[in-house]
Task: inverse folding
């Protein structure tokens, strides 16, 4: 039992971020030390929470000691612990990269915003209350606005305005959805919502369906599901490289929220919503995959290519989640781990290339410093993203295909054809970037700072992919347990110790 | 009263959506503000409209109105206020950097429409 440690992933970054703003705003070195130390501590705490969650049933943390459903609760279960670990590991790599490439000195408050973003992410993964989820979404968003325009510049600011406007609309939709849910059920605790919606009278089903679709739309905006993906390429391609890499986990927040709400609150067995969510999600996911892979083929700059690779990976992920079977969910979770690390790595590599060339354009240009090493990283990452053997992308896609045998004709075709398009797209980009430069070549030896820590960060992410491949068996075994718990959420609901039905209304 | 509130929410939302579809930053921000007003009233109405009753427990109250939506709407107001401040500053920054306040990113279109 983890007790008060459950709130640590939210409280620790909040405290350290405030300290960084107040006490160390003029000392970049001190900021770096504290920021990395806080992220290391977060990784340790997340690891301990993961160990505890995989042995024990879901554990509840009552904020202010108010019992559910009256107070706000945090819930630690296997899925949320997994997301915490993934977030902290990704954050470590991004931080090393940002420090090594001096991105954190190109504007103010990088480390404070970074830690506030961690606070929002961790809170969103831990919370067991729908309105609290909205609040943590806003925390992570407002930090992401600051990070997105870090270093400023004309295009970045204008892309930032679009990004904020789009997310403000999403927040408003989220509030409409929450108010509708509250109006029908009278609660916002997720476990209580699940219990109440399950035995709702027939006449109220219409409003619940409206709320479910609104929430799905909000999370689809976060997860860049077609037709709500328009914000992503412009935002990610204009954001600083390390920030775009950190944003790889932001789309996964949307995927996490969809998985949590659709397994807990709107499962297919619920009379009010039925298979509606799955029916909407599957076609959208397949189109997302197609749009992403065509985008990879058509991208004219490397950061945009990376952004479309992110969209394509979300398509595969949502395809797996839309099947609503434990096997498909476990495969989707494996793909989520893989695609977060792989997408983050491609953004970092794109930044390495763009920094050495002075632009991210996909055209033949003279050789860059450390070309061989960067090319090697790019190709191994491309293999992982396109889903070719031997890396985890191949295993992930294989697991997803295996889990979706029911609709094999359509789903297999889309996934396999899009993988082919991705291979073509990455092959074209790689050969233009790294091979044709020899034809353009000039005599002068390109010069650039070596930045060893940046390569350690990218290498660390790729090493994570290798580890996922090597330990695929044990990882999948653990994920199957997680998926089984998600699809039978009785233990999650029981951990909330809700009062029996009728007690509240009776008084 | 229900009809009045419903009309108010509806017209605020309609005005908000219309303004958000404009091409310049300022109307878009006003539209977002309208939309957040609409949702604030909507949240308030989610606890049912009960006139003249307290939200806090008192010995001589005949009944109560639901206090939770009032707390929710307070949170929503604070957040949307903060977010509006952020987007206004960002829009100002973008306007100063770019020299115009068009929302669209495509510079070829900008040149054509000048």
Result:
């Amino acid at each position: 039992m983890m007790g008060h440690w459950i709130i640590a992933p939210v409280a620790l970054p909040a405290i350290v971020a405030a300290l960084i703003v107040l006490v160390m705003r003029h000392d970049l070195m001190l900021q770096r030390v504290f920021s990395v130390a806080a992220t290391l501590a977060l990784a340790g705490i997340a690891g301990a929470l993961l160990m505890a969650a995989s042995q024990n049933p879901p554990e509840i943390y009552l904020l202010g000691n108010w019992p559910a459903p009256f107070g706000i609760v945090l819930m630690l279960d296997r899925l949320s612990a997994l997301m915490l670990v993934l977030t902290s590991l990704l954050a470590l790599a991004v931080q090393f990269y940002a420090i090594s490439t001096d991105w954190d000195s190109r504007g103010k408050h990088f480390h404070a915003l970074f830690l506030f973003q961690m606070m929002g992410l961790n809170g969103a993964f831990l919370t067991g209350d729908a309105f609290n989820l909205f609040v943590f979404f806003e925390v992570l968003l407002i930090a992401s606005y600051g990070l997105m325009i870090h270093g400023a510049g004309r295009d970045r600011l204008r892309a930032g305005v679009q990004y904020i406007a789009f997310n403000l609309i999403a927040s408003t939709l989220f509030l409409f959805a929450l108010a509708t849910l509250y109006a029908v059920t009278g609660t916002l605790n997720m476990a209580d919502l699940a219990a109440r919606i399950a035995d709702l009278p027939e006449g109220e089903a219409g409003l619940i369906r409206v709320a479910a679709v609104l929430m799905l739309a909000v999370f689809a905006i976060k997860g860049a599901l077609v037709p709500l993906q328009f914000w992503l390429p412009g935002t990610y391609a204009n954001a600083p490289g390390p920030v775009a890499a950190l944003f790889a986990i932001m789309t996964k927040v949307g995927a996490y929220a969809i998985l949590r709400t659709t397994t807990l609150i709107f499962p297919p067995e619920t009379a009010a919503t039925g298979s509606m969510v799955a029916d909407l999600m599957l076609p959208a996911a397949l189109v997302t995959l197609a749009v992403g892979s065509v985008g990879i083929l058509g991208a004219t700059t490397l950061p945009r290519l990376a952004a479309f690779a992110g969209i394509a990976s979300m398509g595969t992920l949502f395809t797996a989640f839309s099947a609503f079977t434990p096997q498909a969910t476990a495969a989707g979770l494996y793909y989520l781990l893989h695609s977060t690390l792989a997408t983050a790595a491609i953004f970092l590599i794109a930044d390495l290339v763009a920094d050495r060339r002075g632009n991210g354009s996909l055209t033949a240009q003279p050789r860059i410093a450390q070309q061989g090493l960067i090319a090697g990283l790019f190709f191994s990452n491309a293999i992982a993203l396109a889903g070719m053997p031997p890396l985890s992308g191949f295993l992930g896609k294989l697991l997803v295909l295996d889990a979706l045998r029911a609709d094999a004709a359509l789903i297999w075709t889309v996934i396999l054809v899009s993988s082919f398009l991705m291979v073509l797209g990455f092959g074209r980009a790689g050969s233009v970037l790294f091979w044709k430069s020899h034809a353009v070549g000039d005599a002068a030896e390109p010069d650039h700072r070596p930045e060893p820590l940046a390569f350690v960060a990218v290498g660390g992410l790729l090493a994570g992919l290798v580890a996922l491949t090597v330990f695929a068996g044990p990882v999948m075994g653990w994920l199957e347990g997680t998926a089984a718990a998600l699809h039978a959420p009785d233990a999650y609901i029981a951990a909330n110790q809700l009062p029996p039905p009728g007690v509240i209304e009776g008084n | 009263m229900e009809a009045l509130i419903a009309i108010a929410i509806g017209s605020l939302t309609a005005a908000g959506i219309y303004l958000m579809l404009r091409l310049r930053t300022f109307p878009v921000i006003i539209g977002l503000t309208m939309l957040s007003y609409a949702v604030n009233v909507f949240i308030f109405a989610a606890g049912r409209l009960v006139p003249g009753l307290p939200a806090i427990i008192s010995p001589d109250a005949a009944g109560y109105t639901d206090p939770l939506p009032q707390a929710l709407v307070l949170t929503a107001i604070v957040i949307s206020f903060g977010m509006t401040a952020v987007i206004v500053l960002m829009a100002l920054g973008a306007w100063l950097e770019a020299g115009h306040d068009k929302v669209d990113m495509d510079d070829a279109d900008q040149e054509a429409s000048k």
